[in-house]
Specification:
Elements lengths: L9 E3 L2 E3 L3 E4 L5 E4 L4 H13 L11 H13 L11 E5 L10 E2 L2 E2 L2 E6 L9 E7 L2 E10 L6 E10 L4 E12 L5 E13 L5 E9 L7 E9 L7 E12 L1
Antiparallel strand pairs: 1-2, 3-4, 5-16, 6-10, 7-10, 8-9, 9-16, 10-15, 11-14, 11-16, 12-13, 12-15
């Protein structure tokens, strides 16, 4: 429930805030939430709570909100270290089964080409195969405490035309009670023809208020039905968090 629309962007201690709004938490305290810079906003809401400040959300105007947040910024409560980039590279080298799990259904299957000369880089790659069903390969990435968002991509080489693939991102996020649970955060569909390796993006996933602990990246291939066997190879997964 947003209150009085959106408090537009302003700079506090050289930190940009965008799409900022005020929202009540389930127990009646008021928390300040935004899609980005969640850790700074978390510090702000903690300060409210620790100082015993209770805001009546329905009576808080946009003008008062900006004045209040600006005043808190002037006290240095929003200062903090800059987010450092963290990257994850996975080219299926070594034993990829230690990092990637399979999700088959119907007649779908998945696996790895080890040293077969079919990889985009290195020696190994993954593969997905299905006709009446589908399959996926998936791996997790720990969400760095210092990061506010992560973006990822993977290279895919379809062996068949009209190969329908879905990329999903699931986040381990706290619910309204503070209990961590998995929920789907990103979804992208691709219809690909046979060809060389091409980069597919998972999109950018921001940490939720309270802190996302882990992201689970999943690459799905759907079979084309009877007589329409579909296959694709995967390589060079890359994720960047900042």
């Amino acid at each position: 429930m947003t209150v009085n629309g959106t408090l537009r962007a302003f700079n506090a201690v050289n930190v940009p805030f965008t799409d900022l709004w005020l929202e009540p938490c389930p127990k009646g305290r008021t928390l300040v939430i935004a899609g980005a810079h969640h850790r700074l906003l978390y510090s702000l809401s903690r300060h409210f709570h620790e100082e015993g400040i209770a805001l009546t959300v329905k009576r808080l105007s946009v003008r008062l909100g900006v004045v209040l947040l600006s005043a808190i910024a002037s006290l240095g409560l929003l200062t903090g270290p800059a987010h450092a980039d963290t990257t994850f590279d996975d080219s299926f080298e070594g034993n990829p089964a230690d990092r990637w799990g399979g999700i088959p259904w119907g007649d779908g299957s998945n696996g790895f080409d080890i040293g077969r000369g079919l990889a985009r880089t290195g020696a190994n790659n993954g593969w997905l195969l299905a006709e009446n069903g589908g399959s996926a390969l998936a791996r997790g990435v720990g969400f760095p405490n210092s990061a506010g968002q992560c973006a990822a991509q993977i290279y895919v080489k379809p062996s068949t035309d009209n190969t329908f693939m879905v990329l999903e991102v699931w986040g381990l996020d706290p619910n309204s009670s503070g209990v961590y649970e998995w929920r789907r955060r990103n979804y992208a569909e691709y219809n690909l023809n046979a060809g060389s390796y091409q980069a597919l993006g998972f999109g950018t996933t921001a940490s939720t208020f309270g802190g996302t602990r882990e992201l689970h990246y999943r690459v799905f291939l759907h079979g084309g039905g009877s007589g329409q066997l579909k296959m694709a190879r995967l390589d060079d997964f890359f994720a960047r968090c900042w």
